[in-house]
Amino acid sequence: MLVVINFGSQVAHLIARRIRQLGVYSEILPHDVSPEAIQKLRPAGIILSGGPASVYEEGAPHVDERIFELSIPVLGICYGLQLMGQKYGKVENKQVKEFGKAALQVKQTTGIFKGLKKEEQVWMSHGDAVTALKGFEVIGSTPSCAVAAVADEKRKLYGVQFHPEVAHTLPGMKILENFAFGICKAEKDFNISDMRKTLVKEIRDEVKEKEVLMAISGGVDSTVAATLIQEAIGDKLHCVFIDHGFIREGEKAEVDAAYRKLFKNYYSVDASELFLKQLEGVSDPEQKRKIIGHLFIEVFEKKAKELEKEHPDIAFLGQGTIYPDRVESAQTSKTASKIKSHHNVTLPEKMKLKVIEPLKDFYKDDVRALGKQIGVPAAILSRHPFPGPGLAIRVLGEITREKLGFLKKADAIFIEELKRSGEYDKVWQALAALFPVKTVGVMGDARTYQYVVSLRAVTSIDAMTADWAKLPYELLERVSTRIVNEVKGINRVVYDLTQKPPGTIEYE
Ligand code: XMP
């Protein structure tokens, strides 16, 4: 394994993820971990993450410097390099911050830079820089950063000022691969079944004799998380599905059938009327999300109380949170701005149960792979992501029963045609949204004045950025024709060509 020591970086998780992608297990440890604790794990290498602090600042996170003397290769990234600078040389504040893409002049194409070109694009984000480092050779520099990469081949200590873990550093994966295999001699033996075993053991160790309650949504994340928890603790898991009325057409029956098969203790709650009533007259997106979030908790708590009476050992709340959820909800940083309140993340705040989130460090592709391993039906695994508030945030503005009905029909046509054409699995997510405006049209010989529906399909890796999907024109035409003909109430269909950023995937 490789360990990643975290100095408060937003992307420490990304480093660990990249290493796992290389087939090597990796774990993130806090900066105050002792060298003895590291040695116990017998890692093949250590990576020091970046971080927002300045090494000389009061209260800046430091690492026990004995880690450099363990005879385990170390790669310092950004702040991690500066910690080496502090020990072996000098770090200075550059006054100007260097942020964004930079051209790296590669001075040697061996070691961690094996296979690189003489010039490579890297991504920088720093204010301080190392200006001197004893015993190290400078192996890369950029126009504004002379010490952009260093190596001490004897002691196997390496440092880069840029971030190899982000996609904008084009040779990033190559550098991490060189470090993991070339330098650390790590073995490619991390796979999904190991991950499954580790997670199951962690859940068992945490839950012990207690029981777990969990709200599951019909989507990939919560289903895989629940299946994993069930594998760990068997029938001590209780799964609740709440139908808030904003799920896709026909979905309730599908979900109920699949879950009854999958879970030993499954409870299905229909609260659709309640949600619709409370949203009457509300058109502000954040307010809609808040109402749905609160009501969801209320309904869930009521069911939870019922279950807790029968099962007094319920002490944990299982959640299907995955890593990008936490990033988008600004959970991973005090400074990141909050874009939307994702109700799956805010859910536990009011509850007294201890939260257990087995997938919190994983990205969607790992979750899918894990789900496949563990026997989650393919129909659930291939499902597009679907927001917690569901179609409520796709009927833009005020929700009425009528508008919701129009949207459900349009959405069902879009999804059906996507599946039929084979395009469904090629896109990350596809949706229809009902705009709160009517436009004029003509049908037969008569004037119509009806709603506009917008189709949106995006390609993405993790929903953090997305591109609009270049769906075939014939498919779009078929969907448009069918919607206008089959959904009384919609007379215009548009296709959304906005990338994220600046647009978000959802409309509210
Ligand atoms: P945005 O619209 O922020 O969406 O680009 C990014 C991804 O998150 C999904 N999404 C949600 N998922 N609860 C969720 O579980 C929510 O409240 C929520 N809001 C948005 C969205 O569908 C997309 O996949």
Distinct ligands: xanthosine-5'-monophosphate
Q: Which class best fits the helix and strand makeup?
A: alpha/beta
Radius of gyration: 26 Å
Oligomer: single chain
Instruction: Count every helix, treating DSSP H or I runs of 4 or more residues as helices.
Output: 15
**Strand line-up across the major sheet:** 2-1-3-4-9-8-7-5-6
Profile the largest sheet.
9 strands, mixed
CATH topology title of the largest domain = Rossmann fold
The CATH H-level superfamily of the largest domain is HUPs
The tally of strands reads 18
Notable traits:
508 residues; Rossmann fold; five-stranded parallel β-sheet; 34% helix; globular
How would you describe what is shown here?
- Helix content is 34%, strand content 26%.
- By secondary structure, the chain is an alpha/beta fold.
- It has a nine-stranded mixed β-sheet with strand order 2-1-3-4-9-8-7-5-6. A five-stranded parallel β-sheet has the order 12-11-10-13-14, sandwiched between helices. Strands 15, 16, 17 and 18 form a four-stranded mixed β-sheet that branches.
- Helix 5 packs across helix 6 (220-233).
- The chain binds xanthosine-5'-monophosphate (XMP).
- The site of xanthosine-5'-monophosphate (XMP) has 16 residues, from helix 11.
Produce a short descriptive summary.
The protein is of the alpha/beta class and 508 residues long. It contains 15 helices and 18 strands.
Topology of this structure?
Layout: E1 2-6, H1 12-21, E2 26-30, H2 35-41, E3 45-48, E4 74-77, H3 79-88, E5 89-106, E6 119-133, E7 137-142, E8 145-152, E9 157-160, H4 172-183, H5 192-207, E10 211-215, H6 220-233, E11 237-243, H7 251-262, E12 266-270, H8 272-278, H9 285-310, E13 314-318, H10 323-328, H11 343-346, E14 354-356, H12 364-373, H13 378-381, H14 401-421, E15 429-443, E16 446-460, E17 466-468, H15 473-486, E18 490-495
Parallel strand pairs: 1-2, 1-3, 3-4, 4-9, 10-11, 10-13, 11-12, 13-14, 16-18
Antiparallel strand pairs: 5-6, 5-7, 7-8, 8-9, 15-16, 16-17
Helix pairs in contact: 5-6, 5-12, 6-12, 14-15
Bound molecules: xanthosine-5'-monophosphate.
Xanthosine-5'-monophosphate (XMP) is lined by residues 328, 339-340, 342-344, 385, 387-389, 429, 463, 500, 504-506.
